Amino acid sequence: MLEKISGNIMLSWGLKRFLIAFMAGALANFALPPFDFFAVLFISFPIFVWLIDGASKQPDKGFIAARKPAFITGWSFGFGYFTCGLWWLGNAVLTSGEEAYWALPLAVFALPALLAIFYGLAVVLARSLWDNGIGRIFSLSASFGLLEFLRASIFTGFPWNTIGYAGMPVPVAMQSAQIISIFGMSAITVFIASVPALFATKNGLKPGVWIASVLTMTHIGYGIFALNQPDPPDSQDVLRIVQPSIDQSEKWDDDKRAEIFQTFLDLSSKPAEDNQERPSIIIWPETSVPYILTKTPSALAQIAETLKIGQTLIAGAIKLEDSASGEADKFYNTIYVINDEGQIVGSADKHHLVPFGEYLPFEAVLRQFGFAPIAETFGGFSAAAGQRTLELGNDLKLLPLICYEAIFPNYAHNDEHELNALINLTNDAWYGATPGPYQHLRQAQLRSVETGLPLIRSGNNGISVVTDSKGRIIDGLALNFVGTLDVVLPGNRETLLNHAQRNLVFFAILMLFFVVSFVFFLRSKNRN
User: Fold this and answer.
1) 321 and 331 in contact (C-beta within 8 Å)?
2) Looking at the predicted structure, is the pLDDT value of residue 69 above 80?
């Protein structure tokens, strides 16, 4: 029965083939947050393998044309995966008003189409070492791992929903990332999920099931081991995360500014819960301050009146940098550190901006056609030259990750500084009640696992959380909840490997997988 099904899928062509690949990719999204149903990959990836089985090269064609069937198969799968995984980006466009509607097809269809190119290339690479047994599973896994790494690295990078996250639905399944990175997990996830394809022909089934079982047990076993290691002692700092759930359509309304600002002040000054210490650090989300603070001393005075002696405010805001010599002013997406006297004592600017969201690529040309960044309340943002550590009192050092900077593993590592925690300020109100905020949280959560640093995450409408150094959520505020979260900052821990070493392990896994697939490919060629 399964052999017949696989044969029909393999021999499909035209629109039917595209739809099968598209639906297989779309189905894989149920393994991601908020669903976290990993088992769907045991359907999605075997179908994908069988489709690739039928995407053989055409030797009478040129180099590119010969590989077209493989590329289209991978692209179709990727188009389904990214379209159904990122559809909520359209909500950000609709929230921005009619002037941003031009970006709707870009967000919903063009971006997935571009991202799908990486999966198309992954299949082209995998197909070059394809056999009819277990070797093709190794080849596909290694190719996916490599192309996911490239997707995170080139053309500014966009590693959202890297396939490895599908293999990490709970903290016990996240701990391996501190050894093999999210990209190594992508290769392992694809391997385990693809092994059921071998049941169709039984060729390589036994070693495939055995290897997948060992990988799974090692993955989960290490997670159990890591979670059972002693936790570091908590710090002495009590945090208060403020989550006001300000409606995005009202965020920059001139008539609402004072009301919104007062909401932050009121939530910040709430008495501590019974038997809890007064918060020493108060955290507001990304671009929460509805004023340019350096131009609004009255707002700083209100903050000073609200903060108690010894309290510090960490707030997301927009920073204006007045230009010289007649050039345009610059605006930055910034985190400010403000003391109890209302003085700005530290800051860090966002350095990796969202293309078309916070800045406009090829701006000089596209603005002539009426295009503008989606988040252009004050004009397009400028990027900082790099990351800056936020240094608070008592030797407390936080590494800021503003909004989607948290999805990049290379921005969240502690090789150069002695850090106490990661702090991720974001505003996911753009995305509404969709999978977007849940996906964003999971990716930030994994940065904590990789670095051994607790995560402080403050979102305008959620999901605000504090995790420990192993990525476990200590406490949190649900999506669209209005309120505050008071929690003691967990301690940090030493990691076995740093960011560069994790990448070395990842590339070692890739090399091993490619060598194994090459050996099976040669054996297959010799038998033929």
Assistant:
1) yes
2) yes
- ∠ at Cα 105 (102, 111), nearest 5°? 120
The question of whether 350 is a catalytic residue gets the answer yes
Token pair for 467: 């995790």
Q: Which of 251, 350, 405, 470 is catalytic?
A: 350
Same structural domain for residues 217 and 295? no
Query: Model confidence at 80, in pLDDT bands (50, 70, 90)?
Result: very high
Instruction: Name the β-bridge partners of 321.
Output: 330
- CA angle 130/45/450 to nearest 5° reads 100
Residues 98 and 163 in one domain: yes
Q: Domain span at residue 355?
A: 238-492
pLDDT of residue 171: 97
In a domain, 233, yes or no: no
319 - beta bridge partners? 332
In a domain? residue 288: yes
Asked if the structure places residue 10 within a domain, the reply is: yes
* 170 and 72 fall within a common domain: yes
Q: Are residues 440 and 505 in the same domain?
A: no
Give mean pLDDT, residues 117-135: 96
Residue 269 C-beta-side C-alpha neighbours within 13 Å: 15
Which residues have CB under 8 Å from 182's CB, separation 6+? 159, 162, 164, 165, 409, 446, 450
- On whether the CB atoms of residues 435 and 428 are closer than 8 A, the answer is no
Which residue in the list 84, 148, 286, 319 is annotated as catalytic?
Answer: 286
Residue listed under structure tokens 């055409």 = 58
pTM: 0.93
- Quick one: pLDDT at residue 374? 56
- Strand order across the beta sheet in which 421-426 lies: 390-391, 397-402, 421-426, 455-459, 464-467, 473-477
Residue 181 and residue 301 in one domain = no
Let me know if 321 is a catalytic residue: no
Domain count, the chain: 2
Asked whether residue 377 carries a pLDDT value surpassing 90, the answer given is no
Pick the catalytic residue: 319, 403, 405, 470?
403
Over its C-alpha atoms, the chain yields an Rg (Å, rounded) of: 25
- Given a cut of 60, whether residue 371 has pLDDT beyond it is no
Q: What is the pLDDT of residues 454-478, one digit of tens each?
A: 999 999 998 999 999 999 999 999 9
Side chain identity at residue 472, one-letter code: R
One domain for residues 507 and 403: no
Query: How far is the C-alpha of 165 from the C-alpha of 31, rounded, in Å?
Result: 8
Which helix (H) or strand (E) segment is 257 a member of?
A: helix 257-268
Lowest mean pLDDT among 24-38, 131-145, 311-325, 467-481: 311-325
Same domain, 247 and 151: no
Catalytic annotation present for 84: no
* Same domain membership, residue 261 and residue 178: no
